[in-house]
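Long-time lurker, first post. I've been practising inverse folding by hand and with some scripts of my own, and I keep getting stuck on stretches where the structure tokens seem ambiguous. Below is the full token string for one chain I'm working on. Before anyone asks, I'm not after the true native sequence, just a reasonable design that respects the backbone. If someone could post their per-position residues I'd love to compare against what I wrote down in my notebook.
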């Protein structure tokens, strides 16, 4: 059974930081490329970043480049997204999933709200 549990969201001022965490079930996580996606109000869900199983390969969307860092702890079946210099346009619900093509199943996500 796929389990994806996101946490760490919140309300921050522009320029602030947040660290998101995603705990994934073993079958989902093991040997998988894991990614973070987000859905902003009125927009389609988009891929923000992904990381290979070894951590050697990462990808960032243009909006995330230079501000966000994805990492993972395979021993804990957890993937992280460190978000710095947050902007109001980063406001969205953030989800983790395998990447770049996600499962149809999604977790609850974690809300990130950035005030100006």
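-- Answer (accepted) --
I ran through it position by position. Result:
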């Amino acid at each position: 059974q796929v389990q994806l549990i996101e946490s760490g969201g919140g309300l921050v001022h522009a320029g602030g930081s947040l660290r998101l965490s995603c705990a994934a079930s073993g079958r989902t996580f093991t040997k998988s490329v894991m990614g973070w996606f987000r859905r902003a109000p009125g927009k389609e869900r988009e891929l923000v970043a992904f990381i290979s199983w070894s951590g050697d390969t990462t990808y960032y969307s243009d909006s995330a480049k230079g501000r966000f860092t994805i990492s993972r702890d395979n021993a804990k079946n957890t993937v992280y997204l460190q978000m710095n210099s947050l902007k109001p346009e980063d406001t969205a619900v953030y989800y983790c999933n395998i990447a770049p093509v996600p499962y149809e199943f999604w977790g609850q996500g974690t809300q990130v709200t950035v005030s100006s």
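A couple of notes from the structure itself: The chain has a mean pLDDT of 95. The radius of gyration is 13 Å. Happy to go over any region you disagree with.
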